[in-house]
Write a structure and sequence with these properties.
312 residues, Rossmann fold, two-stranded parallel sheet, 13% strand, NAD(P)-bd_dom_sf, Lipid_A_modif_metabolic_enz
Length: 312
Amino acid sequence: MATVCITGSTGFIGQHLAQTLGSFTEHKLMLPVRDIQSCGTAGDITVFADLSDITEDYFAKNSCDVVIHLAARAHVTSEYLTDPLQEFRKVNCHLTLDLARKAAAAGVKRFIFLSSIGVNGISNLKPFKVTDKPAPVESYAVSKLEAEIGLLEVAKSTGMEFVIIRPPLVYGPKAPGNFGKLTALVKSGIPLPLGAVNNKRSMVSLGNLTNLITTCIDAPQAGNQTFLVSDDYDLSTTTLLRMMAKATGQSLLLLPVPVSLLKIAARVVGKQGMIDRLCGNLQIDIEHTKNTLNWRPIVTVQEAINQCFSKD
């Protein structure tokens, strides 16, 4: 049994992870939060005005073994910021490394960092592998890569193990971000011009990601490794929308508009990035993750999508 500190335990991923660890494992949980009112999870809850206020003593007095760092600046509209990258760096890089140094100084054995597949890039012609050279495009992913590089240096200088996990789009009940936007579109019942999109995209369900993180708490072979994660089953946007509609019981009209026309229209209205995500390929090779950890996704895509809407 380990003492595990989870940052971001009130977030979409953090709530599910804390509930899973609290209910199905014997790990002792440390949950630093900003607002105790938003924390409905089991564990030792401590309120901090900001995560930067977490001290070395906080980890030491609780005999913390593992830190799972989920807190991040994400799902933020950055177009109106003077320097978006700097704002992402403050939280995703500088705060992460400050926390890692404090954890190492307190004797924490392992630091698990939730990064992003965006570190590899935003699209591909062949599946991303963990050995590929990083090629982040967006500010969020750049800040995550800088944190990864810094964590390697902290690990080398202190002996604390790191584990880096790079997920693609994470989906589940009440998911934020792009999956939440797609959910709203499906439920609206309006015709969508996405019936001819034959791309392939990797995603990961909340249950599968949480299971991988849980595996990395104890697995000796996870130490000082970077893992890519997905459901190990890729979908086209058209197929995903049809699966979502079926799960909701919603009728859905998908118009077979050629992707070339969608891209032209997107350029005209300044939404090229959105269409690239909807129509482009982003596939992930998770063989290294499966082989190193002897791990497999525990939930199928169809099961996970059904779970997203089971309480609607």
